[in-house]
Design a protein that fits this description.
This protein is mostly helical and 183 residues long. The protein contains 8 helices and no strands.
Length: 183
């Protein structure tokens, strides 16, 4: 921990960890797919971080450490439930003028299917995908957060994108292979 002698633990906590609460919430929400559960997991993580303040000096990357704590809490909650509750309104689209209810329904269905397909990814591939595509983290940030190389991040991201694209294409084509017609 690179903490100036004059900074109190409270100020350090506020500046370094509490300032990340929205990002931690979004990360938790992706795993839990429930706003209240994600809020609880985020609060639990912040309490755990505060309770472990004696360990702060040994933490090299506070953001990665806090993300790992949230991830562990979320995975524990999911295991405790035994199954992830399917979320019908995972994509909340606001109705705007001129937006066809059929289009909204189609996008909601596609998002629900995408989430189901993502459950088939390994935990690491899913986490890399979320951190890059949902959170917008750089390869370097993801590597630091997960404690892996940037090359491994790129590889996991490539594999997850390839799998998701192929799976969604197959689903959207209803499993029907397109064939060429000879004229």
């Amino acid at each position: 921990m690179h903490l100036p002698i004059v900074m109190s633990e409270e100020n350090y906590f506020k500046n370094i960890y509490l300032s990340q609460k929205n990002k931690l919430f979004r990360f938790g929400f992706y795993f839990l797919k429930d706003e209240e559960e994600a809020k609880d997991a985020t609060q639990e993580a912040l309490i755990k971080i505060w309770d472990k303040r004696a360990d702060w000096e040994s933490v090299e990357t506070p953001e990665a450490w806090s993300m790992q704590i949230v991830k562990n809490i979320c995975l524990y909650r999911l295991r405790k439930k035994k199954a992830v509750q399917k979320h019908q309104d995972s994509l909340k689209l606001e109705k705007t003028f001129g937006q066809d209810p059929g289009t909204i329904s189609l996008w909601q269905d596609q998002w629900r299917i995408m989430q189901e397909v993502m459950e088939q990814l390994s935990e690491k591939q899913k986490t890399v995908f979320i951190l890059r595509e949902v959170e917008g983290n750089s390869y370097q940030e993801i590597a630091e957060t997960l404690g892996i190389s940037e090359a491994q991040v790129k590889s996991d991201l490539f594999r997850s994108r390839k799998f998701l694209k192929a799976s969604m294409q197959k689903i959207n084509d209803h499993g029907i292979k397109k064939t060429r017609t000879i004229a």
